[in-house]
Amino acid sequence: MSKQPLLTEYNLNGLKLPNRVVMAPMTRSRADNAENAPREDYEAEYYALRASAGLIISEGSPISDEAIGYVNVPGIYKPAQIEGWKKVTEKVHEKNGRIFIQLWHVGRMSHPDFHNGEKPLAPSAINPNAKSYTPEGFKDTVTPKEMTIAEIKQTIDDFKNGAKNAMEAGFDGIEIHSSNGYLLHQFFNGTSNTRTDEYGGSIENRAKILFEVIDAIKEVMPEQKIGLRLNPSLDGPFGMTMDEETIPTFDYIVNKLNEYDLAYVHLSEPFTDVSDNKFAVSEIAKHYRPLYNGTLIINAGFDQEKGNKVIEEGNADLVAYGKPYISNPDLVERFEKGVALTDWDENTFYVPGKKGYLDYPVKARD
């Protein structure tokens, strides 16, 4: 009996993966300390329990104070945070795991509570009309401040410093969070970016910041260790709406990414039903596989059967799992041995403490 595709080895541009199961980046809000630093008895233990994944992509990690929009998320811009992440990478590597960190700036998906009363930064002063998870619970977003050119350049430098800090912390690579309605995604879409300068207007201008971020990060680490995440057909969640230029913009971005020798491009299938949306693409993996020459990771709504199928059909190289990894630290072993998955508890996704974080059973590991 041939080995299921998810459990075959893969060469991630020089990083050897024992399987094609990826742990997707997921905010867990457990860094409830003054420095918002990962802890050895929380984040390090959490990720080490999941080290049998072909690749772990960490939760989004803010690159600056300005990048924050959710409570208790571990950053990657302070010395204490770097030291905390070192504990994480050390424990994961002790278990023979591989881990990238996701570099994050939420842009307008934030709240003045995180910024001493100041408005969050964004490409344009357009309220996403969404919610930000603050220390006092979910609050309505506000109309953000349109970024100056100087603030854009500083943000690019913050991404670069985040990548440099990630290398110091021992990560195997980084993922640029250019997805899910956060800052870089806000630049891409004409409904959230109405600028008239070099970062707005044309498709090329709206995508410009991403390539400047990649070029800056290349100065401090090999581009073979750089991945990025995109969500082309996101429509509705996080205040994002599509228009006639949305998919052409992502087509342009993905085609241009062929000029780089990246670790991967990480794509999400639509988060909502877009079958009646004339601007959307319903099958992201099938659409972008012919456009991109490098490694494609696909996620959103995959189970074991669908994961094996998308690889077997050649539409993706790796499959990222989110919620199943919350409640199944031994997801790879369960796939291998046919052990039923444990259900997750959504009530403990973002709360402090070990419940729903470190107490899910490991059933399939010897």
Written overview of the protein:
The chain is α/β, with parallel strands linked by helices. It has a single domain, classed as TIM Barrel, CATH 3.20.20. It is 28% helix and 16% strand. It contains ten helices and 14 strands. It has an eight-stranded parallel β-barrel. Strands 1-2 form a two-stranded antiparallel sheet. The chain has a two-stranded parallel ribbon with strand order 6-9. Strand 11 (226-230), helix 6 and strand 12 form a beta-alpha-beta unit. Helix 1 packs parallel to helix 2 (79-94). The radius of gyration is 19 Å and the shape is globular. The two termini are 22 Å apart. The mean pLDDT is 97.
Question: What key attributes describe this structure?
Answer:
366 residues; TIM Barrel; 8-stranded parallel barrel; FMN binding; alpha/beta; two-stranded antiparallel sheet; Flavoprotein NADH-dependent oxidoreductase; Aldolase_TIM; 10 helices; Oye-like
Number of domains: 1
In DSSP terms, counting alpha (H) and pi (I) runs of 4 or more, how many helices? 10
**Highest-level CATH class:** Alpha Beta
Level-2 CATH architecture: Alpha-Beta Barrel
**Average pLDDT metric:** 97
Strand line-up of the largest beta sheet: 3-4-5-10-11-12-13-14
Quick overview of this protein structure:
One of its GO terms (molecular function) is oxidoreductase activity, acting on the CH-CH group of donors, NAD or NADP as acceptor. Residues 15-340 form the NADH:flavin oxidoreductase/NADH oxidase N-terminal domain. By secondary structure, the protein is α/β, with parallel strands linked by helices.
